[in-house]
Design a protein that fits this description.
With about 300 residues, the protein is α/β, with parallel strands linked by helices. The chain has helices at about 5-20, 20-30, 30-45, 60-90, 100-120, 170-180, 225-235, 245-255, 285-295, and strands spanning about 50-55, 60, 95-100, 125-130, 145, 155-170, 190-195, 200, 205, 215, 220-225, 240-245, 260, 265-275. It is built from nine helices and 14 strands.
Length: about 300
């Protein structure tokens, strides 16, 4: 049996997933020429062309696609075996790439990761902050925190870590000037601060007086695409906003914001930790997931 070119296989798999030798090199911290050389040697060893190359991109040939699927499964088995050995030590180590939402990640997730970094000096954590849905496999992400629906759930394993609650808030000065809404219909007579992007304002899912879910589409005079400016606008007295409790809690406690329509709390948005389904749940990933679940089990901002 011929020796297996594991280095070439790893280079090939990352090249397919990244779509270029440059991207694969960035993932593996080597030059693109090193990736190209490894793949070329693998092709020569196999006697098969695995990749179609152009000046701008590359893609697998039909044989390359089949070989890629087999390699991904094989590497997953190898990683699982390594995870079993590492789990006996229970010491997370190596590099862990984590992607989190911008505001929620900075305020709620990053402190958990900082604590893990302090506890496990053999673990290197790279944190990226994005409000876009990253492709975990293509971008080499080990673990991500996702808010809302999991559109790509077939390629991801997931664990629920939190259900976000939201509160309808405004600055006391605004409410003194314009009055306090007593029912959902009253919002039509108020300035509403909306959250949205590309011209689409996100509707609020609320409970009406009968306890049934209803959708309120804000006719917002001010629309913002990030959570923290939404809070700033509410504090400035620009109107009424639906704010997640993790973002609004401190301002509510200090009296800078006042909650209205207490019985119409906006419906929860589920937050998950997700990772590629093709990868084993290694100790370094597991320790982060478990820490997040513990942290969000009873968050202080939802205590009231």
């Amino acid at each position: 049996m011929d020796a297996i070119d594991l280095q070439g296989i790893v280079a090939f798999v990352h090249a397919v997933e990244a779509g270029s030798f440059t991207g694969a090199g960035e993932r593996l911290h080597v030059t693109k020429s090193a990736i190209g050389k490894s793949v070329a040697q693998l092709e020569q060893r196999l006697g098969v062309r695995l990749l179609n190359r152009t000046t701008r991109s590359l893609s697998p040939t039909s044989e390359g696609s089949s070989y890629y699927e087999a390699c991904v499964r094989a590497l997953a088995e190898i990683e699982a075996g390594q995870a079993l050995l590492a789990s006996s030590r229970r010491i997370p180590s190596g590099r862990l790439r984590v992607d989190v939402p911008l505001a929620f990640g900075r305020k709620c997730v990053a402190p958990v990761l900082f604590g893990i970094s302090s506890r496990f000096p053999e673990l290197t954590i790279e944190i990226s902050f994005n409000d876009r849905r990253v492709d975990l496999i293509e971008e080499g992400i080990d673990l991500a925190v996702r808010m809302g629906d999991l559109d790509d759930s077939l390629s991801l394993a997931a664990r629920r870590i939190y259900a976000q609650r939201s509160a309808i808030c405004a600055a006391p000065a605004y409410l003194e000037r314009h009055g306090r809404p007593r029912a959902i219909d009253d919002l039509a007579r108020h300035s509403v601060i909306g959250y949205g992007r590309e011209g689409v304002v996100r509707p609020w899912t609320m409970r009406n007086a009968d306890g049934d879910l209803t959708t309120f589409v804000p006719k917002a005079r001010l629309v913002l695409g990030h959570g923290e400016p939404l809070l700033d606008a509410a504090l400035a007295g620009c109107g009424i906003a639906s704010l997640p409790t993790w973002l609004a809690a401190e301002s509510l406690r200090r009296g800078e914001l006042e909650m209205v329509l207490h019985d119409c709390l906006v419906e929860n948005i589920v937050v998950h930790a997700v990772w590629p389904v093709t990868r084993a749940l290694t100790p370094k990933v597991r320790v982060v997931i478990d820490a997040l679940v513990d942290h969000f089990a009873a968050p202080p901002w939802d205590a009231a």
